[in-house]
Design brief:
Two copies of one chain form a homodimer.
Chain A: H1 6-13, E1 17-19, H2 29-46, E2 51-52, H3 54-63, H4 71-76, H5 81-87, H6 91-96, E3 113-117, E4 120-130, E5 139-142, H7 143-155, E6 162-174, E7 177-187, E8 198-199, E9 205-207, H8 221-252
Parallel strand pairs in A: 4-6
Antiparallel strand pairs in A: 1-7, 2-3, 3-4, 5-9, 6-7, 8-9
Helix pairs in contact in A: 5-7, 7-8
Amino acid sequence: MQITDFKKIQKNIIGTSVPKPLSGTLSGHAAGELFDKHVYTEIKKQYPKQTFRQYEYLNDLYSKNPETIGHEARFALFNSPTVMFLLSRGKNATNKWNIESPFEEKQNDTADILVVKDDFYEIIDIKTRNISKSAQPPNIISAYKLAQVCAKMIDNDEFDKFSINYFEIDWLLKGEKLICENAHYVSLFQSNPETLYINWAAAMQLQFHVCDLDQEFKGNKKSWAKAYLKHFVEQAKKRADYMITKFVKPFEKYID
Amino acid sequence: MQITDFKKIQKNIIGTSVPKPLSGTLSGHAAGELFDKHVYTEIKKQYPKQTFRQYEYLNDLYSKNPETIGHEARFALFNSPTVMFLLSRGKNATNKWNIESPFEEKQNDTADILVVKDDFYEIIDIKTRNISKSAQPPNIISAYKLAQVCAKMIDNDEFDKFSINYFEIDWLLKGEKLICENAHYVSLFQSNPETLYINWAAAMQLQFHVCDLDQEFKGNKKSWAKAYLKHFVEQAKKRADYMITKFVKPFEKYID
């Protein structure tokens, strides 16, 4: 299932520009944020009532259910343990939520953008990239969090509730503007899980450039979840072995 | 051995202020940088000719030895494999260095400040802290890099060539100024190595607040190096075991 017409968003975004941020370096976050908002606006044009920032969705959900109090009842509003795990805030914050003090945007929210339609959650994360510089692939999602998501999908037999998508904007600075030169989109569950790179020392993040992610996986979501868990377990074992080889063995001779 | 009179620096710094940075958040790097420069100025007052930024030291060393070409010869100028390992840049950058294109400051340099006297290198790293907020302890140094340093110290029998020191500035925003409310200094080699916390998922960084580091170690540098290597190896083994417990075992049941 796919709600957003990413091809159309791509077409509408390529060639557009945002003003160069006044402060901060061009490499990172600040430059990207404006394009992030730009994509959000474009998607909201397609689905005005179904498009949210993650915190907006939570505020909307809890506001529409004012009689639902406490984290357990609020978590149950998701009708899906997996989606709840991906999108909700912590127990304490969820308990304390009220309409006078709603949630604000948080940098480590899972989704930049959520499109929610017919009980299906399309999670979209925006990655922006200064293509005049070569850069390491960005952090995508915690490999451990994704393993927990896959386990929950299997435990709850939930394979048609959500998708996770990445949209990359390639930009260049021209004069006082950042121009979008190209754009790419991928679905995580259409990539071959065996090719995913886990950077264990960088908070166990999956790292890839969106434009480089294959879309060759032919199985269903259940087989994706199983294949990912197999890959994750193999990589964790490998990393544990590597730690012994690299951080234990060479130093043992110094210990009395 | 100690060159810098840290007690005097501390006295001179407490109560001073720097202007609030115009842009950026107050939490992080930008706010700290001004105090970092402030400490540098104070130390340079004590030792005008012996105080350097790390890149300045390298530029000074290679400029004074213009006939020394190539990375091997330049590395040998340090007269200490351990200090060379801690302070030099990579082979390629060192080969390419010349007086017309000297090194510039790099964020991941080991030392913010170097005081070099009688062939002894006092490495000083400045940590700044907004005490109106509670924050995670900052990254100090790569635990692996420090293990390599300790191994080199033992291999080369070099225990009196350098020290590693941390200086913390506690500041508060008052009006348009950041005021230094307190300051702390510690020597890494006077702390008990067994208490050092290694964050394996955060680039294997040692993390502590300078003001919290004990200074109770009574042994010499050789016993410190050995005790640290014992601790590092134990922690690496523990982390490898933890990875199996946390990332392998819970997910094995999902794999066919």
